[in-house]
Amino acid sequence: MHLSERRDDALLPFARKNGLRYTLEELLATMRTHKIVRGLLLSPPLQGAAPLPNEKVISLCRRSDGVLAPVITVESTVKEVKAAVKLADENKKEVKAFKVRLGYIKASAESPVFARLYDYAESERLPVLFHTGDTAFSNGDLARSHPLTLDGLANKREELTIILCHFGNPWFEDVAELIYKHPNVYTDISGLITGGAYAEKYVEWLAQKISEAIYFAGGAEKVIFGTDYPVTKHSEALALVGKLDVEERDKEKILWRNAARVFHL
User: Fold this and answer.
1) Do 162 and 182 form a contact (C-beta atoms < 8 A)?
2) Residues 224, 108: Cα–Cα separation, whole Å
3) Would you say 246 and 208 are in contact if contact means Cβ atoms under 8 Å apart?
4) Distance of CA 3 to the CA centre of its chain
5) Tens of pLDDT, residue by residue, the chain (265 residues)
6) Residue 25: how many other CB atoms lie within 10 Å
7) Chain centroid, CA 114 distance in Å
8) Nearest to 253, CA basis, from 208, 226, 221, 230
9) Domains and CATH numbers, the chain
């Protein structure tokens, strides 16, 4: 999930479209309503493309009384990588993962600039989330956010827990192959629902694609629940899980068991 208290938050249009106030109080109340006990909070992009400073995310999480845990967003410069690792090390008890915004930054997952990050993530057993698939803005770089760009990194870094955000939408089959092939690669279902003229049909299509990916992977152990709030509402993401043509025990894995295991919640 994302959150800020700034007027230059680039996700505000999504919040307005979904009828959300986009506040900490609303987020926590929504989680209580849907019996969601823990969640990961990430920096939203700000107007001008830079993400919200990670220190602000940690502060918001502390105000949540332990309900929200911070994920550190890492930009593609040596200075930013060094700062992100330092911040994570100073807040070990709170930070649960890192995030690399493929498609929004001018670097690939295998760029040498991230070597220090991956070394630290491996040593501390912290997952690294990667944006994959469609970008929220038209100037995104799909060549860098395609999920298959993570295959090489997974080959080289077998001890690194890699999470492909947004199921690589629309490349669901490619993600299915990656989570099947690599023991250390996972995916999530966040940010998949954004409305549109064929919204109902689209959700049915999503449910079919995700279900087929689970069949291919031989189970749902690699699929993690997420919303990308305020891009997708909690009610919509929960309804999507309900539509999956998989066994109830697999839905339970998606909804919380996998996240509890992977993020040590």
Assistant:
1) yes
2) 23
3) no
4) 13
5) 999 999 999 999 999 999 999 999 999 999 999 999 999 999 999 998 799 999 999 999 999 999 999 999 999 999 999 999 999 999 999 999 999 999 999 999 999 999 999 999 999 999 999 999 999 888 899 999 999 999 999 999 999 999 999 999 999 999 999 999 999 999 999 999 987 889 999 999 999 999 999 999 999 999 999 999 999 999 999 999 999 999 999 999 999 999 999 999 9
6) 9
7) 18
8) 221
9) 12-262 (3.20.20.140)
Token couple for 199: 């919204």
For the record, the structure tokens of 142 come out as 């799909």
